[in-house]
Design goal:
- It is a single chain.
- The protein is mainly beta and 599 residues long.
- The chain has 3 domains: 191 residues, Pectate Lyase C-like, CATH 2.160.20.10; 171 residues, Pectate Lyase C-like (3 Solenoid); 102 residues, no CATH class.
- The chain is 6% helix and 42% strand.
- The strands form 6 sheets. It has a 16-stranded parallel β-sheet that branches.
- Strand 1, helix 3 and strand 2 form a beta-alpha-beta unit.
- The longest helix is centred in the N-terminal third of the chain and has 15 residues.
- The radius of gyration is 22 Å and the shape is globular.
């Protein structure tokens, strides 16, 4: 992702010059690689963490801070992690910075694969008075590739009165109690992110963000909009004014479970809190109330570290234990098999799973209440049927009382190796909640090309009553999202079609030119989605046309609200229609098309 947000012929991130010269996809260059600062010798990694007596051993890349650690030592560690990760877009470092209840007068900057979190049951328990920020300084204030970093469960009081959270995909800002203002861009281009379960007392300024989604939060005020700004269940959000300005606000979330999180209780015991399901709700799960949910002792988790085998993980899962996966990159020789209801697999520090031998990284049985959270799944070089699967084909059970969910779970095909999958995520079970995901066929980095990092679809939903909040899906080679289940709902969809189809004949969906970004099965009777954006830039062959961004049966129960399409790069390629044969075009003459309702 994503684009220069000027409203004129928009430019892409660092690959653009080569791409528009009709270079093959493999020539797409990450700006992080091209950045002169990135050519400097890598800084020394921070010293490995060591657990204190009474604390679990979470491995060398999880730093646990409390009031006994001198402020200068905390700041030095935080700064060392940032120096290591600032330019490491496709690096191997993974880090978590955890703060026990207390106050910390420090400044935190997050680089790639960095996860900052408080360890209280309430966000107010662990406070940072200073700053907790993502800036654009790694790439000249351009934050289009500020991926893979997140903050959660903290009380942040910016010393200046304002923090900056200038990010794009695969990021999260959760359970934050911010006493101050928040900027979402840093003076240059930015491409969209995710806020959930936050209370932000000041003004949020979206700046150049081309899209953004905020869920179940409380805002002081909001200013700014560009293409697609969506609020769901958010108090004090702007009202729907799409298309001018392009803001969409849905008063309540129909069903949601917040992300599980690690905390330390008043007795010093480590636990994982699994929030309860909430229905038809606005605002946070915690403000002025005790969070509802279940605490699971850390002893009920297998703590996965370097050297833990897949056999050990599967034995733990089969015995009814949970997995806490510490920061690192883990190759899986076989699938992780989740067969017990209410299983939690929680990753810290963007823990990364790579399935080998064509395995499905995480294969979930058709059971109640499974929670996957905080994970990056990267495709291996042997094609997997899927990277994550909920339920076998034909799953029929009703999980409405206790739905499964995935939170901040991201997929990557290509970027560090020529990964291959048939589909990224397949949901066969009913009632699954998808809460912030970026499913990305890489457009730059290593192992990138039309025949190198191959994957057909991004998300395939066959189950009924599945709901998605914050659905980012990009560059897959066929349909990005294929929704076949009944009563599906999506709140915010962001997509880019693949940059690199070789020609029109090589990118056809039967009689249709190109594949849709979001397709609802012909048999589906009920489906509804709010805030959808799909963009194209066909860099190898700009004459390519996608006939429609959204393909859906035309019937009253299948409805779409607030849609845009955009032909990027000044119209390098064409999306002929927004939905079916309605709306559009987005092309060299008219880059942006907007459609308020369909039908």
């Amino acid at each position: 992702m994503s684009t220069e947000n000027t409203g004129r012929g928009l430019a892409r991130r660092g690959f653009l010059g080569a791409a528009l010269a009709a270079a093959p996809a493999v020539a797409f260059v990450s700006q992080a690689v091209a950045d002169p600062a990135a050519a400097d010798p890598a800084p020394a990694p921070p010293p490995p963490s060591r657990p204190k007596p009474g604390d679990p051993d979470l491995g060398p890349n999880v730093y646990v801070f409390d009031g006994s650690v001198p402020k200068a030592q905390i700041q030095a560690t935080v700064d060392a992690v940032y120096a290591q990760q600032q330019h490491a877009e496709f690096g191997s470092g993974r880090y978590a910075l955890l703060f026990k209840p207390g106050g910390y007068g420090i400044d935190v900057k997050l680089g790639y694969y960095t996860h900052v979190a408080g360890l209280g049951l309430q966000p107010s328990a662990a406070g940072i008075t200073g700053s907790c920020q993502v800036l654009g300084e790694a790439h000249g204030n351009n934050t289009l590739i500020n991926f893979w970093r997140g903050a959660e469960n903290l009380n942040i009081v910016p010393r200046s009165g304002q923090d900056t959270w200038a990010v794009s995909q695969a990021t999260f800002y959760r359970r934050i109690y911010l006493l101050g203002d928040l900027k979402l861009s840093d003076g240059s281009w930015s491409s969209g992110g995710y806020i959930a379960d936050c209370q932000l007392t000041g003004q949020i300024n979206s700046g150049t963000q081309q899209q953004w989604v905020t869920r179940n939060s409380v805002l002081g005020s909001w200013v700014g909009s560009n293409w697609n700004i969506v609020f769901v269940g958010t108090a004090n959000a702007p009202a729907t004014t799409f298309p001018t300005p392009p803001v969409t606000s849905v008063p309540k979330s129909p069903v949601i479970r917040e992300k599980p999180f690690l905390y330390v209780d008043a007795a010093g015991a480590w636990q994982v809190f699994v929030p309860a399901v909430r229905r038809d709700v606005q605002a946070t799960s915690w403000e002025a109330q005790k969070p509802a949910g279940t605490s699971i002792p850390i002893a009920d988790f297998l703590i996965v570290k370097a050297g833990t085998t897949v056999a050990e993980m599967n034995a733990a899962l089969a015995a009814g234990k949970h997995l806490l996966i510490t920061p690192g990159i883990y190759h899986l020789s076989e699938s992780l098999k989740v067969t017990k209801p209410d299983t939690v697999i929680l990753g810290l520090g963007y823990a990364t799973l790579i399935p080998d031998n064509g395995a499905i990284a995480i294969d979930v049985a058709d059971v109640d209440g499974v929670n996957l959270a905080g994970l990056l799944i990267e495709a291996g070089t042997t094609q997997s049927e899927a990277l994550i699967r909920f339920g076998p084909a034909g799953s029929k059970r009703d999980h409405s009382a206790n739905p499964s969910s995935m939170h901040d779970v991201f997929a990557r095909i290509g970027g560090t190796l020529a990964g291959k999958a048939k589909q990224s995520v397949v949901v066969n079970s009913n009632n699954v909640i998808i809460d912030n995901t970026w499913l990305w066929r890489a457009d730059h980095g290593d192992g990138v090309g039309w025949t190198d990092n191959t994957v057909d679809q991004g998300l395939v939903v066959n189950g009924d009553d599945v709901v998605a909040y914050g659905l980012f899906v990009e560059h897959h080679q066929k349909t990005q999202v294929q929704w076949n289940g009944e009563n599906g709902r999506t709140y915010f969809f962001q997509n880019e079609m693949p940059y690199d189809p070789p020609n029109q004949a090589g990118w056809m969906d039967g009689p249709h030119r190109g594949f849709p970004a979001y397709a609802v099965g012909d048999h589906v009777r009920r489906h509804e989605a709010w805030g959808l954006g799909s963009y194209c830039i066909f860099a190898v062959d700009p004459t390519i046309v996608a006939d429609r961004a959204i393909a859906a049966p035309q019937r009253p129960g299948v409805r779409f609200h607030s849609m845009i399409t955009f032909a990027l790069g000044g119209g390098t390629g064409t999306i002929a229609h927004v939905v079916n044969t309605t709306g559009g075009p987005s092309d060299k003459t008219t880059n942006l098309a907007m459609l308020t309702q369909y039908p």
